[in-house]
Amino acid sequence: MSFLKPHIVISSGEPAGIGLDLCVLLSEKTFPAFITVVADKNALSHRAYQLDKVITFHENKLIEHKGDHSLSVYHIAAPEPIKAGALNSNNNSYVFDVLNFALDGCLNKSFDALVTAPINKSIINESQPFTGHTEYIAHYTHAKNEVMLLTSKSMKVALVTTHVPISQVSSLITQEKFEETLKTIHRDLIHRFKINNPTIFVAGLNPHAGENGTLGLEEIDILIPVIHKLKLEGMLIEGPLPADTLFTEKYIKKADCFLAMYHDQGLAVFKHANFGLGVNVTLGLPIIRTSVDHGTAIDLAGKGTIDPNSFYSAIDLAIDLAQKSHS
What we know:
By secondary structure, the protein is an alpha/beta fold. Helix content is 37%, strand content 20%. Strands 1, 2, 3, 4, 5, 6, 7, 8, 9, 10, 11, 12 and 13 form a 13-stranded mixed sheet that branches.
């Protein structure tokens, strides 16, 4: 029996943000998939009213997503009323209930892929230590070497370190961490994205990639030995190269993926070139997970002015990766 249409689950994210808006707009968009939104149905209905949209909800019913102003919804009630633009830490447990339900469904194969709407780190941290979606999902799914990847039609950018202070970056980039990151990227580019013999371009940590040790020794002590080792094993890796000239046309044409050492080194460039079009993918997981490339936009919630294209792109990629996983 062939695999035709995947079942995508969407965790609706921070309820005071634009996650609910995105789910409402989703009802008007056609996708070749079954899609289930996990959210408080009453909050979804109220957000639809705010956006002047009329939606039919199919609770706990699997339907093909046809863009006919309807949504398949798994209802999880929030402890307190949800108001667009008003963060409420008392609803933090709801945010995790939504996400955990979606993750459990992916782990038990009820869903083929997860698309996450954004959550707010600051409000979550009022209840428990929380560094980010990527790290939480990796811990929940028992992944050992998760990697954040931002992808668009023009480039893929992965990170060695993610949501950590810049003062900690250097100490976190060990030979073991760097090697496992490269191996995870290489493996998932082949098995998830179906790219044969992927080429990875690596940024140096220091200005001018250390300039032969004059501006730092991390390239000599950590990056170059690992790259040399993995190239001998057959991986196609270039670098470390100066980050200030890495994301230029001559490299973009050759690279299947760029690897940056820290969050803003890679994502500032990526979002400048692709904001609203990029998709966040977590590599190294036992499940497929994609997400938008932006935050909760609390100030835009319920106002009808958001651009949903990154959300749609995340769903398109989730569908594509799910189909490729069955090919």
